[in-house]
Design brief:
It contains 14 helices and 23 strands. The protein is of the alpha/beta class and 496 residues long. A seven-stranded mixed sheet has the order 15-16-17-14-13-18-19, with helices on both faces. The protein has a six-stranded mixed sheet with strand order 10-9-8-11-12-21, with helices on both faces. Helix 1 packs parallel to helix 6, helix 3 runs parallel beside helix 4 and helix 8 packs across helix 9. It is globular and about 80 Å long. The chain starts with a strand and ends in a 13-residue tail after the last strand.
Length: 496
């Protein structure tokens, strides 16, 4: 067990309160991975002050020079990928292949955003008056508050941190209390890469104290948040009077639509990956499966058989396919939705209980669960569960299926399995989500394109990507007009 410290102004410091919380291994809930600071408002104030002090120096550093730090971070991440991937699995619970993938996403993002250091593109355009030109340039905001979740404890911080830094902002990172050690290792890598003191600061603690104090701090210029809709709604209300830019990714109730002409074996693999990968603890998890009535019964039988065969266990074990839920609270929530589904009249096909026996009894394990006879109005078809529970529904046509996909308040990710190219093209247009997959699951976004959702799944600006994604959020556009005529020229007036 390691005792963690905050990182403020280039120094690793204990919390001012002297209080600590515990991060535990979700596969063995008695195993403490680390003790982390329970930071208070004073710790947040010090971190923001350090970021504000370093901002003028960092913003003046040429973007290609800032990029060199990110390139070095990418190289260190690559070397440390095996050990950091194991730490992700140890602290968060996802199987090792996914833990390594979490780190690989950070490596990819580091290289990509470093490349943006030579592509922070504006425009140069002709002006209507002689001896005058106009251009737009990108400039940073200032101190960025970055609030991240536990389910991608290296990847999601990388989305926010690397984009913020390459644009010339400084930052304070507030990670989830369920995965603080991963955040510490991530920041240590940037420290080793030569990031100047104060450019990135790390403050750990409970969201309702440290996270809230950071988001509303008067010296914070913008906020990027990934987490629940409940917290996101509170942030929107608090930041709107401050006119503070806010980018949010808040979850989903994602659906896979399987048509009568689909490759059912391929669709089955997509549903298993989307529904039970990361134990269903992804904002893009496929918690709804909408199947055309012509193939519904056959596909349901295939899914139930495959779900029952999934191997649960510690993610560090090579044969594990489904790991634990993050904590007891998450397990209880998912199990409660099993009860809700049964009370609503859905048919429990498999799973539905806590997985016990042997080592599984030591962790937060739940049996992969499949419901059938689910109606679109049921809570298990409308509310985000964040667990290994898949609701199967029946549709009579493509049009009816699309309507069912679009019938929730969310709109993050959706997928369709079909061999009809024209139907796939229609699905791209009609599925109301920020991400659409054709003959692939609802998870699998890549860092070079924006990531974000519609309606309650997100607001503000998408993550990742380049100028259409995070770069546009973490930079502001400044327009510059230069008149070298030597006389007063009035736009829209002196044009004859």
């Amino acid at each position: 067990m390691e005792i963690l410290h905050n990182f403020i102004g280039g120094q690793w410091l204990p919390p001012g309160s002297g209080d600590y919380g515990e991060s535990v291994n979700p596969a063995r809930s008695t195993e403490v991975v680390a003790r982390y600071p329970l930071s208070d408002r004073n710790d947040v104030n010090r971190a923001v002050a350090a970021a504000a002090e370093s901002f003028p120096r960092w913003r003046r550093m040429p973007a290609p020079r800032r990029a060199e730090v990110l390139f070095r971070a990418a190289e260190i991440l690559s070397r440390k990928k095996p050990e950091l991937g194991r730490l992700v699995t140890l602290e968060m619970g996802k199987v090792l292949a996914e833990g390594l993938g979490d780190v690989q996403e950070a490596i990819d993002m580091a290289y990509f955003m470093a490349g943006e250091g030579r592509r922070l593109i504006g425009e140069t355009v002709p002006c209507e008056l002689p001896d005058k030109d106009g251009k737009s340039i990108r400039v940073p905001h200032g101190v960025a508050a970055l609030i991240t979740p536990w389910n991608f404890p290296v990847a999601i911080p990388s989305w926010k941190v690397f984009a913020a830094l390459i644009c010339g902002n400084t930052a304070v990172l507030k990670p989830s209390s369920d995965s603080p050690r991963c955040a510490v290792e991530f920041v240590r890598i940037l420290e080793a890469a030569g990031l100047p003191p104060g450019v990135l600061n790390l403050v750990m603690g409970r969201g309702e104290l440290a996270g809230d104090a950071l988001a509303v701090h008067p010296n914070v210029a913008l906020v990027s948040f990934t987490g629940s809709c409940a917290v996101g709604g509170e942030l929107e209300a608090k930041l709107a009077p401050l006119h503070r830019p806010l980018a949010q990714e808040m979850g989903g109730k994602n659906a896979i639509l399987i048509m009568e002409d689909a490759d059912l074996e391929l669709a089955l693999h997509g549903v298993l990956w989307g529904g039970f990968g990361t134990t269903g603890q992804r904002c893009t998890a496929a918690s709804r499966v909408i199947v055309h009535e012509a193939v519904h019964d056959r596909f349901l039988q295939m899914l139930v058989k495959a779900a029952r065969a999934l191997r649960l266990g510690d993610g560090l074990q090579s044969d594990t396919q489904v790991g634990p839920l993050i904590n007891q609270r998450a397990l209880n929530k998912a199990l409660n939705y099993v009860r809700i589904g049964q009370e609503e009249g859905a048919k429990l096909q498999c799973g539905g209980g806590r997985a016990g026996g042997g080592e599984l009894a030591l962790g937060n394990f739940m049996e992969p669960t499949v419901f059938s006879e689910v109606k679109p109005s049921m809570r298990i078809a409308q509310e985000e569960i964040f667990g290994p529970l898949v609701a199967v529904m029946r549709c009579s046509s493509f049009e009816a299926g699309v309507d069912m996909v679009n019938s929730t308040r969310y709109g993050l990710s959706s997928a369709i399995y079909t061999r009809d190219v024209n139907r796939a093209a229609r699905a791209e247009q009609e599925l109301e989500s920020g991400l659409v997959y054709v003959n692939a699951s609802t998870i699998g976004a890549e860092i070079q394109l924006p990531f974000g959702g519609f309606r309650y799944s997100g607001s503000g600006h998408p993550e990742a990507g380049g100028r259409m994604g995070a770069i546009d959020f973490f930079s502001r556009i400044k327009v510059v007009y230069r008149d070298f005529s030597g006389r007063l020229q009035r736009a829209q007036i002196d044009i004859e």
